[in-house]
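Sample pair:
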Amino acid sequence: MSQPIRNIAEAAKRASRLLGTLTAEHRNVAILSAADLIEQSRSRLLQAHAEDMDAASALLARGEMSSATFERLRLNDKKIAEMRRSMLAVANLPDPVGRILQRTELDRGLMLDKVTCPLGVLAVIFEARPDAVTQISALGLKSANAVILKAGREVERTASALVEIIRQALDGAGLPPDAINLVTGREAVADLHPNMFWSSGRKILEAARLASTRPNLHMVYITNFKCGPDSYIKHFARETAGAPLLVLQFDGHGNDAGYMTRCEAYLDSKGILRCYQQQPVIH
């Protein structure tokens, strides 16, 4: 892992420990502050977005970007308002932290509780969707998790502006700005597969290479039966990441929330999610 990314990851981990000690009300205030500041920073966002669109127009003209991807990039006043509303909706959700999912009486007066708790740091890769920044950031803060975002190059300027605004709001609300982070640029993967021209495939290999450099960072590959190059990508991802590589494959009869619930249930059944065990705090 390159030193800048290592620094970001370590700062995010420190921020996650503080997030876990805050009340739901404090985290909600931060989400609301970020939503309001985003709306107040429309001109700044639209200026950054215009630069992304100029670069995207050139890619579209050369046939290096599809028209569908180009349309997903678009950001305007209406979408900024929608981004704010979605963040407000997340803030109004029930607190997901500290919920008792299961209680077992082991002996008289001895109860064992299974309680929801933050995972720590979430690393999320996404493509040409500016609203993914606000959605993921709001959900991360709501669940008391720090976030490291990796945006597609098509939306890097807009994503950078959004993350800067959110970090500014966190600082003003008394939360660590390092709770929300953005990684830009991309690692070269030509040596792994010189003919990997599929954008998502390159990002998967980038993630696999990153996982291979950290003994405590493992890759979870989520896919479905409709993905054509699935076995092809899995082969190179497994070869790059090394062991362990967990592959979760779903059919098309589900939604995103269902997928995440099933992932969590499976990981917990395998003993991977043991976050309810007390971990030593390193200052």
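Confidence is low (pLDDT under 50) at residues 274-283.
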